[in-house]
## 1
Amino acid sequence: MTDTIEPQPVAPKDAQWDVLIPVRDLIDKHPDLALTIRETVTQYVRDAEYPALIPVQITDDGETYAGVRCPWCGIDVENSEHLDVLDENDRSTTISADEFDHDHRTVSPDYDDRGQFDGLCYVCTGCDRPVSLPTAWTER
Ligand SMILES: [Zn+2]
């Protein structure tokens, strides 16, 4: 493992608006489809494959410790507590550093009310981009 990564290329800053124009036009022409479009987009966001977080060994001031870096911006989401789980209702739960288990390759988010939490994706809050858990890691 290393403490350096190649950040993922990102879309131009205003590209998000170009992507949304046909969606907005479709809803303007067919408002009856608005809820179907919303549900479909939610499903696509849930099913999409996002760049995986990268487990690393970080050396800082002569001390080496485990971390997990964002593939988009390179921030250590584990030790800076910049990894959230986002649910369908725009609620987020931050995964704290002690909820990462490198030996068992798991994260264990502490949901306030797990029964009501409908997970959508993981988000690096350092850059507000979706990510997936590191390869072979799971949530428990
Ligand atoms: Zn990031």
## 2
Amino acid sequence: MLVNIFVFVFGAIIGSFLNVCIYRLPRNQSIIFPASHCPNCDHPIAWYDNIPILSYLLLRGKCRSCKQSISLRYPLIELLNGILYLMIVSCLGFSVYGLGFYFTAYFISALIVTAFSDLETGLIPDQPIFLGIILGLIYGALIGKPLDPLLGAALGFSALFAVQKLGAFIYKKDVLGDGDLKLAAFLGAFLYAPNLFLGLFLGYLIGAVVASLLLAFKVKKLGDYIPFGPYLALGGLAALFFGPQIIDLYVIIFLGLR
Ligand SMILES: [Zn+2]
């Protein structure tokens, strides 16, 4: 129980840092300097106003200095990161005393930064993805699978590269950005084949459903830019937590094997 509280609080604190990354990385600002300040009035945020989730509730979602509303995204990402870190322990069975927990935590948090940066700015920042591929290679070497992340990254990149070229040939326009290709390489460096392909497929499926809904409800029109990064990230998370179960289910249902 105490460990679970630690894991959740740790996740929420990292989530608070992710909010800084989501705001600053696409704007090419340093994520270390200056300390947190209100994006509206530049007032520095005191430590007691920077406690994950709680401060947002205590301040009723408004800056203490200028009363400008704080985006609901801030406490939501802290909550989300805390819950997902708990799932590393409860669903995947990693112990907080082992390195696997922290590598998996990096994978999850980098996907959150990627998804929300892409949603808000249409840009996927390189830094968390490049660092992530290196960490994936290091982790693979540590657990005695040095080739799996290398192969996974190469397969992820090539698969989406093929889709990008094919799409450009058929539709005469860019269907995928270069950021999506790098993101697929990052997914491969942690998920490995065949789970990687499940992640890409789920991402495509979720993206297609959401895009159809956006078109049906006329939020977007045909030809509008719809970022694909968030769906790839979501597919990657689904594959991480439920990949082996989904693949088993598929094998049982469609191939009649047990
Ligand atoms: Zn303010």
